[in-house]
Amino acid sequence: MNRRFTNTALASALCLTLTACGDSGGDDNPANPSGGGLEGSWLSSCVPDGEGEFDTTLLEISGRDLTVTVTTFEDPTCTRRSIGISSDGSLTPGEQVPIPGEAPATEVTIRYGSVALTLFEEQSVQNFNAAAACGRTDWSVGVSFDVIGCDLGTGPLVLPDEYNIYRVDGNVLLLGDIEADGAGETPQTRPSTLDRSEPFVRTTAG
Questions:
Q1: The pLDDT value given to residue 37
Q2: In sequence order, what E strands does the chain have?
Q3: pTM for the complete prediction?
Q4: Chain centroid to CA 44
Q5: For position 153, what pLDDT does the model report?
């Protein structure tokens, strides 16, 4: 499962650290807006997150600006929200990457500047406030707070640069296939194949 570019692991880390998850009933260059490519909004399907819940991921790209919104749900139809993570950053395209037997992909490097956390369950809010999560006791349902630098007990939260690849096939966006821990954290560990298990579908054009 692709865990880079979308930051789905962050929601799980927050839940596990703070025991906060309640049990309530043409041109692929993103720097070229006129050419299409990555411009616009891209939505994943509802997929298991590996922690017993389910995620959707929305990518919103304008020029080199990127917003990634990962919403975690309690149910496999992704209707009961539990937690949301929204990350803002920038992306920089790189060289083409040959893919044997098919069209090439393109390198992309992502740098994040902010991460906002939103809780959608009252039990999660109570747990966060009881733990004074991120030094706050004013968590509320549906209210977002920036958590960059938040100390979750293992030091301040930071998001490393991400090194990935992508290819746009019509209205479908494929990202790099990242399975191993640490993959995509350095240019040397950038993936070399595409992940077809979690495609993104274009919902709006740029």
A1: 81
A2: 40-44, 47-48, 54-62, 65-73, 81-99, 102-119, 144-146, 162-169, 172-176, 194-205
A3: 0.82
A4: 10
A5: 66
